[in-house]
Design a protein that fits this description.
By secondary structure, the chain is an alpha/beta fold. It is built from 11 helices and 20 strands. Strands 1, 2, 11, 14, 15, 16, 17, 18, 19 and 20 form a 10-stranded mixed β-sheet that branches. An 8-stranded mixed β-sheet has the order 4-3-13-6-9-10-12-5. A two-stranded antiparallel ribbon has the order 7-8. Helix 7 crosses helix 11 and helix 9 packs across helix 11. The protein starts with a helix and ends in a 9-residue tail after the last helix.
Length: about 525
């Protein structure tokens, strides 16, 4: 009777999924959460076992290996291991006066190798080059061979009238684009300052429960080989010292830029930096795991729809184990079930569907950043990315969101869509697909700059590269990044609904044209 009612309620032409096998989904969740995997942290055996499990399920479904003859896309990692006592140093030299800043207290940072830089300082505002907003902090200054000093985030981010997407963040506010932009302009290093007037945590602030280190602007000490120059994050006191010779405080510089929406960049008078970044280094290999369902239409099979998750999580801390049932076993189990459902569907999509679970998301989206630099399928012919992460808990306030977000009392049927401002077409496809699923879809994070949500998952590297990508997200909850994120707290009904929503969205995308990517 339920199946008949679902068919009757479905829009004309809707492609109904085979029944979701929740027993199979629960088995995936139970295995990936076992204590023996020790949180599936990158460069540890547990992560490799999780990757092997995903690979085996792809093979069992008879999906094609997507990385040549392998399901694995390998990528190198180098973990910067802190030395004790710390040996990194940052010295400011102004008019012959040397100011020694303290690692941990005044600055943090690591790099894929030991590096020494001595160079003049250039203040480059927010470090943004955004032609679509007619804004360029590097206009009129030369940072070649110098150290760029920039603010975190972007101008007027708390102003609904800001041309930078109002109170929502743009991709220019993220640290990675700032580092890459500085390197593209010839800088040899970057010093990142908290903008004094902000609603998000300062760079070196101690994170609250439910608020990961990435919101401080300092990713855990693991780097891929793509970041070309070292960057250090500075405390507010150190930021004031760095800009002292300009005659203005950091707050005054921010006020001037935000007021005029024009660059106020300049050489920091008579000031240079001596940067010496040192640590131990552990090198290893992490894995993205990818399988392909080739499209049935020869004219369209070269185009790709990506359904993805990430399988890694956090390491044990003493005796405390972090199973990460919601983050992100839920998304990985959903992605695996979708792969199985598409593999046995009697009707094939015209376009190809790539199923991929990224490694090393918790270290700063390293697997997905590696993918967009080394795509298995061309990004230019990738229609859209549906990123499944944290999809099976009921959203509720954590300390970092209290007083900053409106969250309904009942979120048992609520899912957030993140990244839709860059592709309204993709949002429309998801909402059309949702007519059969009837989840409550919320886009509140498109209007929020306090939680950095746009940057915090594997959809963002695709957005950074101009590919329509949406994070299908169940929201934050008590137990996020805690040992209490266990299978018994999952909302299995919501998980099943997200699987069906994603299934239907793939079909919506397959029957339509390529969603547009909106620059502004």
């Amino acid at each position: 009777m339920l199946a008949i009612l679902m068919l009757a309620a479905a829009p004309a032409g809707a492609q109904q999924p085979p029944p979701v096998d929740m027993t199979r989904v629960r088995a995936d969740v139970d295995f990936l959460c076992i204590p023996e995997l020790k949180g599936r942290v990158s460069l540890a055996p547990g992560a490799n076992i999780a990757a092997a499990y995903i690979r085996a399920e792809f093979a069992r479904a008879r999906l094609s290996a997507a990385a040549g003859n392998s399901y694995y896309q390998e990528f190198p990692l180098v973990e910067a291991v802190p030395l004790s006592p710390p040996q990194s140093s940052l010295v400011l030299v102004t008019g012959g006066r040397r100011t020694v800043l303290q690692p941990g207290k005044d600055f943090r940072g690591s790099f894929g190798s030991d590096v020494r830089v001595t160079a003049p300082l250039v203040f480059a505002g927010y470090g943004i080059t955004a032609p679509e907003y007619r804004y360029d902090d590097y206009a009129g200054v030369n940072v070649r061979g110098k150290v760029a000093v920039v603010f975190n985030h972007e101008p007027r981010e708390a102003d609904p009238r800001s041309p930078f997407r109002g109170t929502g963040l743009t991709r220019h506010a993220n640290i990675r684009p700032k580092v890459m932009n500085a390197a593209a302009h010839g800088a040899v290093a970057l010093l990142l300052l908290s903008e004094p007037k902000s609603l998000h945590p300062a760079l070196l602030a101690t994170p609250q429960a439910g608020q990961p280190g990435v919101t401080r602007g300092f990713a855990p000490p693991q780097h891929d080989e793509i970041v070309p120059i070292p960057y250090l994050t500075l405390s507010d006191a150190a930021a004031a010292t760095v800009l002292a010779s300009t005659g203005k405080t950091p707050a005054e510089w921010q006020e001037a830029i935000d007021r005029d929406l024009k660059p106020h960049s300049l050489d920091v008078p008579g000031t240079s930096a001596e940067i010496d970044v040192r640590s131990g280094h552990q090198r290893g290999i992490s894995y993205n795991v990818a399988a392909l369902m080739p499209g049935s239409d020869p004219a369209l099979a070269a185009e790709t729809i990506i359904v993805n998750s990430h399988y890694d999580h956090l390491p044990n801390r003493g005796e405390r184990y972090y199973p990460g049932a919601n983050d992100n076993v839920s998304g990985t189990a959903a992605m695996l079930e979708l792969a199985r459902l598409f593999a046995v569907s009697p009707t094939r999509t015209r376009r190809s569907v790539l199923f991929i679970s990224f490694g090393s998301e918790e270290e700063g989206l390293l697997g997905s950043y590696h993918y967009v630099e080394h795509p298995l399928r061309p990004l230019s012919s990738t229609l859209a990315v549906l990123n499944l992460d944290m999809i099976a808990r009921d959203e509720a306030h954590v300390p970092a969101t209290e007083g900053k977000l409106q969250i309904p009392a009942d979120t048992s049927n609520l899912i957030d869509l993140v990244g839709g401002s860059y592709s309204p077409d993709l949002v429309r496809a998801i909402r059309q697909a949702n007519e059969t699923t009837r989840l409550e879809l919320d886009e509140k994070y498109e209007r929020d700059s306090t939680q950095n949500v746009l940057f915090r998952c594997d959809h963002f590297p695709f957005v950074y590269k101009g590919v329509p990508a949406i994070w299908i997200f169940g929201g934050f909850h008590p137990g996020y990044h805690e040992s209490s994120d266990t299978p018994e707290h999952l909302n299995w009904t919501k998980l099943e609904k997200v699987i069906r929503l994603t299934w239907q969205t793939v079909w919506e995308l397959d029957k339509g044209s390529k969603p547009a990517f909106v620059q502004k």
